[in-house]
Amino acid sequence: MEETEKTVQKAEKLPFRAEAFDWLQSIIFAFVAGIFIFIFIARVVRVDGSSMYATLHNNDLVITSKLFYTPHTGDIVVFRTDGYGDEPLVKRIIAKGGQTVDIDFNAGIVYVDGVALDEPYTNTLTNVRENFDGEVTVPEGCLFVMGDNRNASRDSRSYSVGFVDERQIVGKVLFVLIPGSNEGEKADWSRFGSVYR
Q: β-strands 164-165, 89-96: how paired?
């Protein structure tokens, strides 16, 4: 009788141990997969400032990826430049290597290859010149980038940013992971999941 009870107790312990081991394996696998994803596939970047308002807000946490990425005009990208060191910048690609950029600051219109851009995403017209002296041709392998909040953005118009070498791109912004908010404001969760709202 005692042997039967001991056998039942052993049988009860085995499934518990097996289940605990399965849970431990799952947790370790999820942890390793998460590290792999955020090192090789995607990164989380915090938006600092209002240069991309209203597309992206201050303190937004965004998911970026460079995996198999080729830059296209209109993409929002995270990059680093020598002028800003390790601080990542977030801007929109306006033109690529070989294209010309000109800006009519009185009318607030940006021209690429002589064609006025249709820019419904901008917060304001482009009236601030920064260091922009006139029509420029973007060097091959480089990008001309601008913030959507045109009059509050330090971008390719400025000497401190200039043309962005494609090799300096950290990744394309895919979507908003956690909407940010300024001090005293509430986060707008309707913006979760997209950079285009």
A: unpaired
Can you tell me which residue has the tokens 């908003």?
Answer: 176
Contact 141, 127 (CB under 8 A): no
Contacts (Cβ under 8 Å, ≥6 apart) of 49: 58
Active site residues: 51, 91
pTM of the model as a whole = 0.80
Tokens of 177: 């992971």
What single letter denotes the amino acid at residue 37?
I
Going by their DSSP bridges, the two strands 142-146 and 89-96 should be labelled as antiparallel
Q: What is the biggest distance separating any 2 CA atoms in the chain, rounded to whole angstroms? A: 97
Q: How far is CA 61 from the centre of its chain?
A: 8
**pLDDT means over runs of 10, the chain (197 residues):** 52 64 74 60 88 92 92 96 87 98 97 97 94 96 97 95 95 93 78 76
Burial of 193 (0-12, 13-18, 19+ CB in 10 A): middle
Tokens of 55: 């597309």
Residues paired with residue 169 on neighbouring β-strands, in sequence order? 79
141: left (phi over 0), alpha (psi -120 to 50) or beta: left
Q: Please, are residues 157 and 134 in contact by the beta-carbon 8 Å criterion?
A: no
